[in-house]
Design goal:
- By secondary structure, this protein is mainly alpha-helical.
- It has one domain.
- The chain has 19 helices and four strands.
- The chain has a two-stranded antiparallel sheet. A two-stranded antiparallel ribbon has the order 2-3.
- α8 runs antiparallel to α18, α10 packs antiparallel against α16 and α17 runs antiparallel to α18.
- The radius of gyration is 21 Å and the shape is globular.
- It is found in: Cell membrane.
- Keywords: Cell membrane, Membrane, Transmembrane, Transmembrane helix, Transport.
- GO terms for molecular function: purine nucleobase transmembrane transporter activity.
- InterPro entries: Azg-like, Azg-like_bact_archaea, NCS2.
- Belongs to the nucleobase:cation symporter-2 (NCS2) (TC 2.A.40) family. Azg-like subfamily.
Length: 450
């Protein structure tokens, strides 16, 4: 890095003191550019989240507003509590579990499912406060963490393939290839290739650019109906605001506690893996420890709590933050920039009507690819590790249930490790989770098929 002039750090004394710009060898300009890059890399969530949660019956407009507001809250918390250049917003994975497993699979109304998110968020915050999250995160076997991230990626990609019409149901073989006679299927194919080419060329914001280009092609060909207007006030939160709190009586049903448990587990693993990867990239990790990790986890927990009240699913730290970090983002000023852009984006809610399943499908598939990259880090040479990891990965898309995939891994890992003579490597927390998942499967009672 070239030597930076002192004036670079004194452009705004308040910003320098607040975000320690000079200490982190960065500038206001560099942080803002990093924030712009990260935002355009992750902006697809504003349109994908309403689509996925809309499948559960939730109001897409309200989800759009809740997504943007939660992103604002999450990024500001991360900026001022942890001073990290890492964005927080409602994540893919948790929303898929909410819609396709809890609501459509288990038959739990979305109103009651939101109460599960709310309770999970409260527990999440308490666990963060007492540093239990850090303890459990460190105790989960590394290979299973990697497998869970990969499995969720496979599941999300499968949802995208279905939504885009590339994969359809089949009575003889369960699934089959879709019809290429449908023009909307070709719209999905166009989006996949465009985003793929942009990603291959390392173009910042590839997913968002591909999403916009696919919409434009759909509008030009008449496959997507044009909106009556583009700019509007953000949709009302009334359909979703506080719904989870109003439906706490849902916890009379034991299944709801299983839902809460899985929300906790999914959020645990998603945040842990992403934080480790991004802080490594940013050079934040010192002596194999992440400074201010407790504050970062608290930011995630509080944003999840806020999102559950507003009406959206668990938040996540975004791997797309790596795009901004690659351009020099090192402090919370990057995430403040992202928060401002989330606020500005709330004026464009009418564009929801043009973001169809065929438009979001390529984004889901590509994000699935990114999440599946964890596969390369799993120790496939040890069968006692390979089988549990494989069952996690394949279990999620094939059972259409994230919960089952996690359960398959946590139930087989300690047994196979013991059989391989590596019992001492299995800590007591892993055994506790083993029995928790036995209880979980009993409660779910082989989840009713939707």
């Amino acid at each position: 890095m070239s030597k930076l002039h002192k004036t670079d750090f004194t452009e705004n004394g308040l910003l320098d003191r607040t975000f320690r710009l000079s200490q982190n060898q960065t500038t206001v300009k560099r942080e803002i550019i990093a924030g712009l890059t990260t935002f355009f890399s992750m902006a697809y969530i504003l349109f994908v989240n309403p689509t996925i949660l809309g499948a559960s019956g939730m109001d897409k407009g309200a989800v759009f507003t809740a997504t943007a507001l939660t992103g604002i809250i999450g990024c500001l918390l991360m900026a001022f509590l942890a001073n990290y250049p890492i964005a927080i917003a409602p994540g893919l994975g948790g929303n898929a579990f909410f819609s396709y497993t809890v609501v459509l699979g288990m038959g739990i109304p979305w109103q009651k499912a939101l109460s599960g998110v709310f309770v999970a968020a409260i527990l999440f915050t308490i666990l963060s406060l007492f540093k239990i999250r850090e303890l459990v995160i460190n105790a989960i076997p590394k290979d299973l963490k990697l497998a869970m991230a990969s499995g969720i990626g496979m599941f999300i990609a499968f949802v995208g393939l279905q939504g885009g019409g590339l994969v359809v149901a089949s009575k003889s073989s369960l699934v089959s290839i879709g019809s290429f006679a449908s023009p909307t299927t070709w719209l999905t194919i166009f989006g996949i290739f465009l985003i793929g080419i942009l990603m291959a060329r390392n173009i910042p914001g590839s997913i968002f650019i591909g999403l916009v280009a696919t919409v434009l092609v759909g509008l030009a060909t008449g496959l997507i109906k044009a909106p009556t207007h583009i700019i509007s006030l953000a949709p009302s939160l009334h359909p979703t605001f506080g719904i989870g709190i109003k439906n706490l009586d849902a916890f009379l049903d034991p299944q709801m506690w299983a839902v809460v448990l899985v929300f906790l587990l999914v959020a645990f693993f998603d945040t842990a893996g992403t934080l480790i990867g991004l802080t490594t990239q940013a050079g934040i990790i010192k002596n194999n420890k992440i400074p201010r990790i407790g504050r970062a986890l608290m930011s995630d927990s509080l944003s999840m709590l806020a999102g559950s009240v507003l009406g959206t699913t668990p938040t996540a730290t975004y791997v797309e933050s790596s795009a901004g970090i690659a351009l020099g983002g090192r402090t919370g000023l990057t995430t403040v920039t992202i928060a401002v852009l989330f606020a500005f984006s709330m004026l464009f809610s009418p564009l929801l009507t043009v973001v169809t399943d065929q438009v979001t499908a390529p984004a889901l598939i590509v994000v699935g690819v990114l999440m599946a990259s964890s596969l390369s880090k799993i120790d496939w040479n040890k069968f006692e590790v390979a089988l549990p990891a494989f069952l996690v990965i394949i279990g999620m898309p094939l059972t259409y249930n994230i919960c089952y995939g996690i359960a398959f891994g946590m139930l087989t890992y300690p047994i196979l490790m013991t059989a391989a003579g590596r019992r001492k490597e299995v800590n007591y927390i892993t055994w506790i989770l083993f029995f928790i998942f036995i209880l979980l499967l009993y409660i779910l009672n082989i989840v009713p098929k939707g």
